[in-house]
Give the backbone structure.
Amino acid sequence: MMDRVLVTGGAGYIGSHACKALARAGFLPVAFDNLSTGWAEAVKYGPLARGDLLDRASIDAALAEHRPIAVMHFAALSLVGESMKDPGKYWRVNVEGALNLIEATVAAGIGNFVFSSTCATYGDQDGVVLTETTPQYPINAYGGSKKAIENILGDFAAAYPLNHVIFRYFNVAGADPEGQLGEQHQPETHLIPLMLEAVAGKRPALTVFGSDYATRDGTCVRDYVHVSDLVDAHVLGLKWLLDGKGTRAFNLGTGRGFSVREVIDAARTVTNREVPIIQGERRPGDAVALVSGSARAVEELGWEPKRSTLRQMIGDAWTWAQQPEYRE
Ligand code: UDP
């Protein structure tokens, strides 16, 4: 019998890639998803357990049926802009959902938990390289909700045998290099897929949010990491827990930041097409620059980001964008 891992959000962008990486590593991923933003077609590597994190009974039922050795928690609302307009929704869905899941995990006697957190928990820190020990001062409700979940995990780990690995993602991009999975949000809000829709003529233009940030070209700087590298780190994090190495937080980024304009330039090169852009206002909640100090994951987990160049990420996203597989 293969060891099972419950993957909340397993039908979503990152969760589906994680399921593939887990299956490749010899685990059976059970995707727990309410399909509110995920795609049933993205669940390809193990069963789908339909359920909702706000419905505790559905979590208990999935844990009782599948008896996983670990939980990987991806399911969440994740849009900075939306979280500024509707903070209540973010606190309710993300925090209450995670609390239900953590309580159910403890009640089921499972002691291994991998959590998707975010660099948005650090807030806006004047362009400093962010390491795992940088104090966290989120500036939007999305980052605030993720920081709260990190705190909850800490409290539960003090009270119960619940080892956990926290991954703080920088900007995840790209698609499965074999073309089986990709990024498809409804509506789309992320820079690279929106930009590629503009390149493909599916939208008139990309709006660049802000031109007067204190960066080299006035646009925000982000650290982009390939989704397949990111999920490889999750498998390493799971093995870390199964090896009994205990609770730890890791940033997942490359340590290199690119401005919005640099990403657009790279897309021009990769696609060999023009990127139609409109200059817009700043987006509320956006930090000026978010760049990872990523040494810890490399040194302690043995993580090797292999595909996280702009060229590779945009190239894989472009291949997917020309042939997205999920039904609209
Ligand atoms: N961005 C932009 N236009 C868009 C979407 C995003 O200029 O239509 C910028 C955004 O302000 C940020 C960067 O691109 O500086 C990455 O944004 P995204 O929403 O992809 O990720 P986030 O940093 O919010 O997690």
In short: The domain at 4-173+224-252 is CATH 3.40.50.720 (Rossmann fold).
